């Protein structure tokens, strides 16, 4: 079978197109892998939904991705990780790599002792996030800044838009005022607006996202399971939303057109 027909891609999923910021790091580190990216656009945003809903949906998606022939699964969504990572791991036969806000590296980097974390309401209210802060940043001041509406606005209007500018004005100002010197991008949509966040903070404030750490972790997990390699960089993008409109948003964020299929887990 030609490598381009490799039936075992790595599945990556998010509520929408934030996970593409993670996918970019995964493909840069693992060019010999094929990827299947799933955006659960029909249910975006996860960030305002009940935990039980995200858990059930996450397990359903993970099971469908395994049936579709994925060899590993990356949960490229902080909100889905917070609500569903344990349930997905319990239900999935695949190696599962999840991600969480970079509070641990932030705690090692801060000099002012003030760390800002931008994330969805659901992520910040989760037990998992409370534990993360307690375990790694208890000695610091952690400002948990919920950003309701931001992921949807990035997708609906594009990063460079008035609604996004207005939301960022409101969400970043408290972090600047409190002298945070590290700001964690705790939602995979936010790297799309990293430059706009940086412009609202004093020079020298570090922004942390977890794409590269996830790529290293995925590489380790694949190597440990003898699953590394075998593809040729093929990428399929699918969405539970309407392919034409999702395709337009993908093109705007990714910077080039990618075909988008409809897929219902
Ligand atoms: N991209 C998702 C995350 O990393 C959240 C966006 C949403 O609310 O669905 O948390």
Question: What report would you give on this structure?
Answer:
It contains eleven helices and ten strands. The chain has 265 residues and is α/β, with parallel strands linked by helices. The protein has a six-stranded parallel beta sheet, with helices on both faces. It has two domains: 10-99 and 211-262, Rossmann fold (3-Layer(aba) Sandwich); 103-208, Rossmann fold (3-Layer(aba) Sandwich). It has helices at 20-29, 51-67, 78-91, 103-109, 121-124, 127-136, 150-157, 162-177, 194-198, 211-224, 243-254; strands at 10-14, 35-39, 72-75, 96-97, 114-119, 141-146, 182-185, 206-208, 235-239, 260-262. Helix 2 (51-67) packs across helix 3 and helix 7 packs antiparallel against helix 8 (162-177). Residues 1-6 have low confidence and may be disordered. The radius of gyration is 18 Å and the shape is globular. D-glutamic acid binds next to helix 3.
In a few lines, what is going on in this structure?
The chain is of the alpha/beta class.
Structural class: alpha/beta
The CATH topology of the largest domain, please? Rossmann fold
Q: SSE string, helix = H, strand = E?
A: EHEHEHEHEHHEHHEHEHEHE
Associated small molecules: D-glutamic acid
Question: In angstroms, what is the radius of gyration?
Answer: 18 Å
- Poorly predicted regions are 1-6
- Main β-sheet, in a few words? 6 strands, parallel
Tally of separate domains = 2
Oligomer: single chain
Largest sheet: spatial strand order: 4-3-1-2-9-10
Helix content: 40-55%
- Per DSSP E runs of 2 or more residues, the count of β-strands stands at 10
Question: What is the average per-residue confidence, as pLDDT, rounded to a whole number?
Answer: 95
């Amino acid at each position: 079978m030609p490598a381009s027909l490799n039936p075992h891609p790595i599945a990556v999923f998010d509520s929408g197109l934030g996970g593409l910021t993670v996918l970019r790091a995964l493909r840069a580190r693992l060019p010999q892998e094929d990827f299947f990216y799933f955006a659960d656009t029909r249910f975006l945003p996860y960030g305002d939904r009940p935990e039980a809903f995200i858990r059930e949906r996450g397990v359903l998606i993970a099971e469908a991705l395994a049936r579709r022939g994925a060899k590993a699964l990356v949960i490229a969504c902080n909100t889905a990780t917070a609500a569903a990572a344990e349930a997905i791991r319990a239900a999935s036969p695949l190696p599962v790599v999840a991600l969480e806000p970079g509070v641990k590296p932030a705690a090692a980097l801060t000099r002012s002792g003030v760390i800002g974390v931008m994330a969805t309401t659901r992520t910040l209210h989760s037990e998992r996030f409370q534990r993360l802060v307690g375990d790694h940043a208890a000695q610091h001041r952690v400002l948990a800044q919920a950003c309701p509406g931001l992921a949807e606005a990035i997708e609906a209007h594009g990063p460079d838009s008035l609604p996004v500018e207005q939301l960022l004005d409101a969400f970043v100002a408290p972090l600047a005022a409190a002298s945070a010197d590290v700001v964690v991008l705790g939602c995979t949509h936010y790297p799309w607006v990293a430059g706009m966040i940086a412009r609202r903070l004093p020079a020298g404030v570090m922004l942390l996202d977890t794409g590269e750490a996830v790529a290293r972790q995925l590489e380790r997990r694949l190597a440990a399971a003898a699953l590394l390699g075998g593809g040729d960089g093929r990428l399929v993008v699918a969405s539970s939303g309407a392919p034409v409109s999702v395709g337009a948003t993908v093109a705007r964020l990714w910077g080039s057109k990618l075909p988008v299929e409809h897929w219902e887990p």
